[in-house]
Write a structure and sequence with these properties.
The complex is a heterodimer of chains A (249) and B (423). Chain A is of the alpha/beta class and 249 residues long. Chain A has helices at residues 40-48, 72-77, 95-109, 117-130, 148-162, 178-191, 205-210, 230-239, 242-248; strands spanning 2-11, 14-24, 29-33, 54-62, 65-66, 80-83, 90-94, 141-142, 166-170, 197-201, 215-220, 223-228. Chain B has one domain. In chain B, the strands form two sheets. A ten-stranded mixed β-sheet of chain B has the order 2-1-5-7-9-11-13-15-17-19. A nine-stranded mixed β-sheet of chain B has the order 3-4-6-8-10-12-14-16-18. Chain B is globular, with a radius of gyration of 21 Å. The chains are: A alpha/beta (249), B alpha/beta (423). Chain A binds chain B through residues 45, 48-50, 52, 71-73, 75-77, 81-82, 84, 87-88, 90-93, 98, 101-103, 105-106, 109, 158, 162, and chain B through 368-371, 373-382, 384-385, 388-389, 392-393, 395-396. The complex binds adenosine-5'-triphosphate and magnesium ion. Magnesium ion (MG) is lined by residues 40-41, 85, 170-171 of chain A.
Chain lengths: 249, 423
């Protein structure tokens, strides 16, 4: 489904990704772990189409199509979803209006009829109930004044409504209390099916207790330095990343 | 004497107009004009706004008083059909009797100044205001009786006359609100003309004790038109003015809004939105005169500028020695959405007493890149995302307009304008 080959990227004159390769197949859940500043969010944002990075080498294909030519909005409509590490506040832009515009953009792209406000509200209400989100969320500005945990739940709400093919969740578990973590995990588990895929960027093994990954990767200095199954996450929790850096040398 | 407009021609043009009860006013206006200077960019208050193009139009109007120019206004799509209000439409120096009668029933009296001047004081101060008084053809007076609470807003629309001289229009509107009244007023500058045209407008407002006025100025002229408007509001004890301007059109527009706090406990919100695109210049000058204490003025202007558009904001508060316990704020926020867009913004305070609370600030920025990416990553087109963000930026202040029937109209106006701007 998603194939990244030898990706190199830099910002200004700093190299951030240094030959990263990753293959994600349908139905899989991948976890990406790694120290702060190793390039996890950079990778996630490049997949989503952020143009602030300079991709100097390598390629990303999605369903056998070159992804690099598409602007972010088209990637989204084709089924790529990024759950932001730091969801953006857009004061004054109504959350419902935002979600509806997003869903209708996708539906239009797929040749489906646009949804009216009434239909949309039904879907949105179902989703917020499942995710145990306060209904007043829908009437507020996008992430406006939301707490850290509320913002993360709002990302999962968007994922649930947009039904992407691949969801990249960048530290969606950070800053969540244990109940919220369970709700988010439930949301992701309900989203999973044999036709879609999930990439979880996380620092904590505890998320992986709720969402079982098929593969775990360690990203360090812009490269995947180690891959394994879920036991790798348990090991890392004990030993930290220091050893991975040594291995590389 | 002003060099730019020929005085002999001006006075003979003034003499040809309807005099009625206005003959003395016109004479005074002419003599005042004679001794006052027309604005020029050498004057600090006008340094960013060059209005020299209007002099030629004025002279032309004296020489060639009739010309065939098509006004775009047709009955079907005027603002009067879109916003539910008591519309006072002034055309050819006449007003619609039907609507006037309806207003009369609820205690609101509308009349032409030339027929009903009584002891009304016609403001004649600077040169443009004098020019207006000398040449005003369409001038009305609206009197709101004590205790009146209007069920619908009053709409004011001066329709540019297509039969008479169509280079210059001098409109004046005198609004007198007695005590304990509540009324909403929509002043529409929406009659488009597709040829060079100068509208010189003056609005005088007296707001009585405990009265509350919602005032909305809507300007959507064509890019051939120039509007200069002076609005002066005098506030009584406990009076409340909620003023909002929405400026979308015109090639050149200059508004001077003066609010005089003559009595205690009065409050004025002076808000505005301006959106300027290619070849547009929009200048708002606001002056809150706190002559007496315990009064509050708050200025909030939001601007979006694209193309090579240029805007000016000058928000000033004068706090006199007697004005203890006053509160005055001036804020101006701008979004520049193109490289050549320009804003000159300046909040100003002149304070002669200690016991006051004042704050001011201006911002000039671009659209938030992160917000744009966030929206795009949810499938929203870049251009649509830009429009939504821009609209969000200015809508905040429009939420302060308490005239619900205007909401859709303003929203459509802004959406259409932003579409043109972000194309
Ligand atoms: N716009 C930028 N300008 C300069 N450096 C940048 C920029 N964006 C990212 N970087 C650098 O790239 C590196 C990787 O950043 P990235 O956000 O991808 O790390 P991360 O692995 O997600 O870290 P964390 O675990 O803290 O979220 C960091 O050293 C960061 O400072
Ligand atoms: Mg990160």
């Amino acid at each position: 489904m998603l194939e990244i080959k030898n990706l190199h990227a830099k910002v200004a004159q700093t190299n951030i990704l240094n030959g990263l390769s990753l293959t994600v197949k349908k139905g899989e859940v991948h976890a990406i772990m790694g120290p702060n500043g190793s390039g996890k969010s950079t990778l996630a944002r490049i997949i989503a189409g952020y143009d602030g990075y300079d991709v100097t080498e390598g390629e990303i294909s999605y369903n056998n199509k070159n992804l690099m030519d598409l602007p972010p909005e088209e990637r989204s409509r084709e089924g790529i979803f990024l759950g932001f590490q730091y969801p953006v506040e857009i004061p004054g832009l109504n959350n419902t209006q935002f979600l509806k515009a997003a869903l209708n953009a996708k539906r239009k792209h797929l040749g489906m009829e646009e949804m009216d406000a009434f239909e949309f509200l039904k879907i949105a209400r179902d989703a917020i109930k499942k995710l145990e989100i306060d209904p007043s969320f829908l009437n507020r500005g996008v992430n406006e004044g939301f707490s850290g945990g509320e913002k993360k739940r709002n990302e999962i709400l968007q994922m649930t409504i947009l039904e992407p093919s691949i969801a990249i969740l960048d530290e969606t578990d950070s800053g969540l209390d244990i109940d919220a973590l369970k709700v988010v995990a439930k949301g992701v588990n309900e989203f999973r099916n044999p036709d879609n895929a999930v990439i979880l960027v996380t620092h904590y093994q505890r998320l992986l207790e709720y969402i079982e990954p098929d593969k775990v990767h360690v990203l360090s200095e812009g490269k995947i330095v180690r891959s394994g199954d879920k036991s790798l996450a348990i090991e890392l929790e004990k030993t930290g990343y220091a050893k991975e850096k040594d291995n590389e040398k | 004497m002003s060099a730019q407009i020929n005085f002999e021609l001006l006075s003979s043009a003034a003499k040809k107009l309807i005099q009625g009860e206005l003959s003395d006013t016109r004479v005074n206006a002419l003599s005042n004009f004679k001794v006052s200077e027309m604005p020029s960019t050498k004057n600090e208050e006008w340094q960013y706004t060059d209005i020299s193009n209007i002099y030629a139009l004025c002279e032309k109007s004296f020489h060639e008083p009739s010309k065939e120019i098509k006004s775009l206004t047709n009955k079907e799509n005027t603002i009067a059909n879109e916003i539910d209000a008591y519309w006072i439409i002034i055309k050819n120096g006449t007003i619609d009797i039907m609507e006037t009668k309806r207003l009369q029933k609820i205690g609101i009296h509308v009349s032409l100044l030339s027929k009903n001047l009584d002891d009304t004081e016609v403001l004649i101060d600077d040169s443009l205001c004098s020019l207006n008084a000398a040449l005003m053809h369409d001038a009305i007076k609206i009197t709101v009786s004590s205790g009146v609470e209007s069920d619908k807003p009053i709409g004011i629309l001066f329709e540019n006359d297509i039969n008479l001289n169509n280079y210059v229009s001098n409109f004046r509107c005198i609004i007198e609100v007695k005590d304990n009244a509540t009324v909403s007023i929509i002043h529409a500058h929406t009659a488009k003309i597709q040829a060079p045209h100068f509208t010189n407008s003056v609005v005088q407002m007296d707001i009585g004790e405990n009265s509350h006025i919602e005032y909305l100025r809507l300007q959507d002229f064509s890019v051939h038109q120039t509007l200069i408007e002076k609005s002066v509001a005098n506030l009584g004890i406990n009076a409340n003015l909620n003023y909002t301007s929405v400026d979308i059109g015109a090639q050149l527009m200059r508004a001077d809004i003066v609010v005089n706090f003559n009595e205690k406990h009065a409050n004025a919100n002076i808000n505005g939105v301006y959106i300027a695109g290619n070849n547009q210049h929009i200048d708002n000058h606001i002056l809150a005169n706190h002559f007496i204490g315990s009064s509050k003025s708050s200025q909030n202007f939001y601007g979006v500028i694209g193309g090579n558009g240029r805007c000016v904001f000058n928000g000033k508060a004068l706090i006199c020695e007697a004005a203890i316990n006053s509160n005055a704020n001036q804020f101006n926020h701008n979004l520049l959405i193109s490289e050549n867009a320009e804003i000159n913004t300046k909040p100003e305070l002149e304070i002669y007493t200690d016991d006051v609370a004042c704050s001011h600030g201006t911002t000039v920025g671009q659209l938030d890149e992160n917000a744009l990416f966030y929206m795009q990553s949810r499938g929203i087109d870049e251009v649509v995302a830009q429009q939504l963000l821009t609209k969000t930026f200015i809508t905040r202040i429009l939420n302060e307009v308490n005239i619900p029937s205007t909401k859709d109209f303003i929203e459509n106006l802004i959406t259409d304008k932003l579409r043109v701007l972000t194309q």
